[in-house]
């Protein structure tokens, strides 16, 4: 059964299919460390290993979209559950049914997506107006709304952008590179902000965690930051 150690981490032994679709499960010691935002696994309990022994596997909690019972998907693997993380699925075996349920619950709780309440959401138009405040007064602007990939994009009209640039207001929309968390880097297009948000599907009204990129002209999203890094690398950006 998973237990809590002295550092308030969820720990315990599980069997993991380290090579996807191999069908071969290996015994590993797992640590769910929310302070490091990671699920780590070791060859054995670190207390039984030489000091400083590294983990043999690590999965960032932000990559995990869902954890569920997989006994029907893998009938030959008893007490099996699956972790959906980006483009990969990790299959693990618990010690018994109660162990399976507890691991699924603690992992889902650690990766739970908090959906914002309607009353807590600020209208994008208000964000634009607030950012264009100048000399203590709010500048009234017009804006346009476009639907791109099922996501509403609200931007100032070209005339207002030009006026803001001439008066120096547009400088208030800039973000410094130091505000961008590593390993994300400013591209030639000028990334304003990058990070994880939750979005509601256009057809299936479910909420999912996605990695968003906001630059001066567009906003886009990917399944994870690793998918974005791979796509920018392969496209030479």
UniProtKB/TrEMBL annotation:
- The segment annotated Disordered runs over 159-178
List, alphabetically, the Gene3D superfamilies matched: Pleckstrin-homology domain (PH domain)/Phosphotyrosine-binding domain (PTB) (2.30.29.30)
- Domain of life assignment: Eukaryota
Q: Which CDD domains match?
A: PH1_TAPP1_2 (cd13270)
Looking up Pfam families in the UniProt record yields: PH (PF00169)
- Domain PH span(s) in chain numbering: 7-112, 190-237
PROSITE patterns named among the record's database cross-references: PH_DOMAIN
InterPro entries found in the cross-reference section: PH-like_dom_sf, PH_domain, PI-Interact_SigTrans_Reg
Protein name as annotated: PH domain-containing protein
Record the organism. Answer: Engystomops pustulosus
Q: What is the lineage of its organism?
A: Eukaryota, Metazoa, Chordata, Craniata, Vertebrata
């Amino acid at each position: 059964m998973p237990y809590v150690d002295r550092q308030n981490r969820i720990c315990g032994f599980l069997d993991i299919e380290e090579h996807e679709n191999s069908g071969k499960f290996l015994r590993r010691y797992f640590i769910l460390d929310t302070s490091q935002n990671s699920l780590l696994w070791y060859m054995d309990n670190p207390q039984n290993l030489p000091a400083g022994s590294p983990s043999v596997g690590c999965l960032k909690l932000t990559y995990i979209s869902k954890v569920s019972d997989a006994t029907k998907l893998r009938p030959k693997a008893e007490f099996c559950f699956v972790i959906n993380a980006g483009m990969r699925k990790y299959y693990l075996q618990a010690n018994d049914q109660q162990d399976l349920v507890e691991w699924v619950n603690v992992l889902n709780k650690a990766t739970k997506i908090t959906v914002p309440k309607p009353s807590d959401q600020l209208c994008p138009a208000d964000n634009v107006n607030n950012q264009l405040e100048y000399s203590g007064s709010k500048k009234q602007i017009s804006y346009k709304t476009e639907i791109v990939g099922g996501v509403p994009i609200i931007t100032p009209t070209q005339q207002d952008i030009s006026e803001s640039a001439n008066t120096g207001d547009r400088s208030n929309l800039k973000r410094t590179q130091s505000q961008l968390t590593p390993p994300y880097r400013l591209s030639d297009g000028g990334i304003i902000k990058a990070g994880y948000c939750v979005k509601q599907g256009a057809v299936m009204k479910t909420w999912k965690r996605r990695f968003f990129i906001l630059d001066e002209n567009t906003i886009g999203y990917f399944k994870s930051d690793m998918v974005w890094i791979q796509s920018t690398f392969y496209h030479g950006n």
